[in-house]
Amino acid sequence: MAGAYHPCMTLQADAAYRALTTRDARFDGRLFVGVTSTGIYCRPVCRVRTPRRENCRFFANAAQAEAGGFRPCLRCRPELAPGLSLTDSSQVLAQQAALMLENAAHEGRDPALPEVAARLGVTDRHLRRIFATAHGVTPIDYLTTQRLLLAKRLLTDTALPVTQVALASGFGSLRRFNAAFVERYRLSPSALRRDGGAAAPAPAASAGTTSLRLAYRPPYDVPGVVTFFANRALAGVEAVDGLALRRTLAVEHRGEGLAGWIEARFEPLRHEVRLSLAPSLLPALGTVVQRVRQSLDLDADPAQIDPVLALVPGAQREGVRLPGAIDGFESAARVILGQQVTVAAARTLTRRLVERFGEPVETPFAGLDRLFPSARTIATADPEVIGKLGIVRQRVRALQALAQAMAEGRLALHRAAPLQSTLEALHELPGIGDWSAQLIAMRALAWPDAWPATDIGILNALGTRDVKLAAQQSEAWRPWRAYAVMKLWLNLE
């Protein structure tokens, strides 16, 4: 069939072809085109000569294109395309499963689908069925594509040895990596690096720094995101310099603690973020990339969100994003310390916590020299010592209860965590009410419909103190109420 499209596509083939011919960046990551005359699949923004209509096959994601026998384009590089956010409630479960599989793989664990199904509260068989319906491929094919696309990015953009590329992209061994690469792309990793050519390195913060490109869909409210982070930057841990966001970071990978720094620099004309990171974080590169994409909300689709935000009172802002958490515990801890105080006061309390309990780390940036304290460190700290930082007893109790739950593995705070069970677990902790739980869901879980109903900033922006009235007004903004919160906050800053 000429111009065929996959049944999971949300666009008909004619509309998809129009997006391709106009190279519309708003569809980047939402569709891919396989060209039968070349056997290659591309992003809709690819700058190569537009293929003939009858040679095009359209797919909703890269995994479908590869399952159809197409290889990724070396010019537009499908691995750079922004991903999809949790938008359609009928597909949330399948998308959560995909995120959980990716998280496990990037952390160096072999993900087990029955375990994922159990955590989501469904049977293994049901999860496989809805996964195939939502993504058009099996979970294993989907995961293999994600790993291979990350590997392709590393082979093209960095000089990492192939062995390190294999481990950083989630493969347990070089042999498995080589076999999967040859099977999918019909050439070896070293041949792709030679044929594709390594990209010219971007200006880096220090010698030996790895730098990657992360794409997003325009429009993107860069000033709003930068302002948000600048107003909350934590001395020693975070810094904002123009369009560059810098911070220290610690991650767990294969049972080992890694620490270093990252820099995310916006390049608005390219609709990209240039991510640079310390060599010490390279083994966990997949995890770092995921966290940065969530932190900067690079997978959002403004074409769906902006029409709803136009209904929100205040000046019009295009491309509002939902700044997320680079670390779930850190984000939740900062929410607790921000209870019933101003943003500036919360930052002061958090800075004291970092100065007392944060471990030192070397970076090439002046003043960026501390890691945020780990959950284990806070859980085992003397409560009286924490209290002497000016943190009231109720907050100390809530902070340590949160830290204990996360250190023991009873609570996980990341985008792939199941929403309802996580909210219930948060509510069971002392000192965490609905306002705190909703903010944690908004920042750490990247939940787009979070609504901290009693937030004073929201009420001020809406010009009311009636919580019920504000909640009723917010019903028109579903399922993007968290983005509405951001717009309301930004209108006050």
Give the gist of this structure:
By secondary structure, the chain is an alpha+beta fold. It contains 22 helices and nine strands.
Structure in words:
With 493 residues, this protein is α+β, with helices and mostly antiparallel strands. Among the domains are: 13-80, DNA Methylphosphotriester Repair Domain (3-Layer(aba) Sandwich); 89-157 and 160-196, Arc Repressor Mutant, subunit A (Orthogonal Bundle), CATH 1.10.10.60; 210-284, TATA-Binding Protein, CATH 3.30.310.20. 45% of the residues lie in helices and 10% in strands. The chain has helices at 13-22, 62-67, 92-106, 113-120, 124-135, 139-157, 162-168, 174-185, 189-196, 222-232, 285-295, 302-309, 328-337, 343-357, 375-379, 383-387, 393-407, 419-428, 434-443, 456-462, 467-474, 481-492, and strands at 32-35, 40-42, 56-59, 71-72, 210-215, 238-241, 244-253, 256-267, 272-277.
